[in-house]
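Sequence only, no structure available. Ideas?
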Amino acid sequence: MPRRLSLPDSASVADTGADGRMYAPSAARNIPHIRDLLAQFAPQTGRALELAAGTGEHAVALAGALAGLDWQPSDVDPARLRSIDAHAADAGLANLRPVITLDATAPGWSAAHPGQDLIVLVNLLHLISTPEAHTLVAEAAMALAPGGVLFLYGPFLRDGEATSEGDARFDASLRAQDPEIGLKDDWEVIDWINAAWLDLAAVVEMPANNLALIARKPG
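Reply:
I predicted one. Tokens follow.
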């Protein structure tokens, strides 16, 4: 299941009040870029499932920007479940559903969540093991409706190499805490996408050495 560690980019996530609302500095930085890219590739209407929705900041921002989508955030961590609902309650968006508990690394979850027109995952693959990440991509592919879009965002190795000293240190810090996790290789994840019978639509370099992988289910 997804791990929640004390990491360089997430150490400053904190509760801010009795409602349990949390904030992630990385979310504030990447929301505009993710929002603008999703506007190009996401369907205009349908069902959207956000996996590992974290603090809930992405859910509010993206549901607000993509008003034609019925946005379903999910997570497995109780503190983040509370934070997501707290952010959602304050936003008051008609298309943003209450958060559900979903372990996106568990085999078989797609059977309970079929027909998704968009599945979004931000900043999780490097926090889970390679088998868990592979399972997540395979299950997401099965949960997509024909024509549905899978959007993966985060830090990746490029052809097996870190793109900066900062990413190399970050990867090393992850593996020091748990040798099973760490940055995933872009080509390996693309291989998983292809093996799941998805068509790779775009690979987009994002700010801060992040990458967006966008795939579409045929049909």
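The chain has one domain: 14-216.
Hope that gets you unstuck.
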